[in-house]
Amino acid sequence: MKYSPKSYAVALSSVLEKSKEEKHVFTNFLKTVKKNGDQKILHKILDAFKKIEIKKHGGSHIKIEFAREPLKDQLKSITKKFKSQDWIETSLNPALVAGVRVTIDGEREIDNSLARKLHKLFK
Amino acid sequence: MQELVSQLGLDWKLLLSQGVNFLILLTVLTFLVYKPLSRLMEERRKKIEFGLAGAEEAEKRLKEIDKVKEEKFAQADKNALKVIGEAEKRGQKCFDEILKNAEGKADEVMAEAARVAEQKKQEELSRLTEKAGALIKEAIIKTVELDPKHVDEKLISQATLIIKEKA
After folding, report:
1. Contact B162, A112 (CB under 8 A)
2. What Rg, from alpha-carbon coordinates, does chain B have?
């Protein structure tokens, strides 16, 4: 690994800020990553880039985990609580048993799952 | 006088010569027998006197030794009694200390045993509680899994409210 994922992401973000040809920038960026032999960390670079872009636009990275597939109105009611600049990701996590767990920027957590409640009850 | 001498049949010459013989014999016997014998007798007497005096001295010494011996025995008895008394006191003191230590140790052992028993009891209780908790948890999960919609709905709406409050 020649550079850290964060360094790649910062460089990409600053280049995109100055250039209008996004496609060209992305192509050249991917070529550079390949040249450096860092294709393996591409997903990490993209994660870091995503974080930088979300922050740049004043949003947050919201990760919502459901115990099972949520109903449409449930998903709507929960997602409309966040700003339009926020990046919302949903996933399924059967370990929650029931309920939902929301993580904001990987730091704050709102865990309203049955697994958490049971854990608190029997710890 | 001469008449009487002649009547008695005495001869002056013979008498004189016999007197001289007697004196010679007396002188010879005095020097050769009497004086050595006297000297020997004197020496013997002195030896006997010395022996007697020595015996008296020895007897006196023996008496003194007996007296000293008796005093020493009395002192030794006294010392022995004192030593025995002290030894008894020390022995009693040691015995008391050992008894006290033993009682202390017995109390400690009892306390330790009680503590271990209590700890085991608590561990057992904790294990049972944990097991019971796991069983209840499993039962709740299985019950929820039979019809999760209502629980999900409730929890998601609660989460929505929490997010609204925190936003």
Report:
1. yes
2. 65
Give the ipTM of the model, two decimals please: 0.71
Which residue in chain B is spatially nearest to A118 when comparing CA positions? Answer: B137
Tell me the whole-structure pTM to 2 decimals.
0.51
Structural contact between residues B157 and A77, judged by C-beta atoms closer than 8 angstroms: yes
Per-residue CA distances from B128 to B67, B114, B115, B122, B133 (Å): 89, 21, 20, 10, 8
Query: Nearest CA to A108 among B163, B85, B23, B109?
Result: B163
Q: Which residues of chain B lie closer than 8 angstroms to A102, CB-CB?
A: 159, 163
Find the residue in B nearest to A111 (Cα).
B159
- Domain range summary for chain A, segments of one domain joined by +: 5-56, 61-122
Identify the sign of the CA torsion B145, B149, B151, B155: positive
Residue with tokens 């020496």: B43
pLDDT 10s digits, A9-41: 999 988 888 887 888 898 999 999 999 888 899
- Let me know: does A102 contact B159? Beta carbons within 8 Å: yes
Tell me the pLDDT tens digit for each residue of A36-93.
888 899 999 998 898 888 888 888 889 999 999 998 988 998 888 888 888 899 999 9
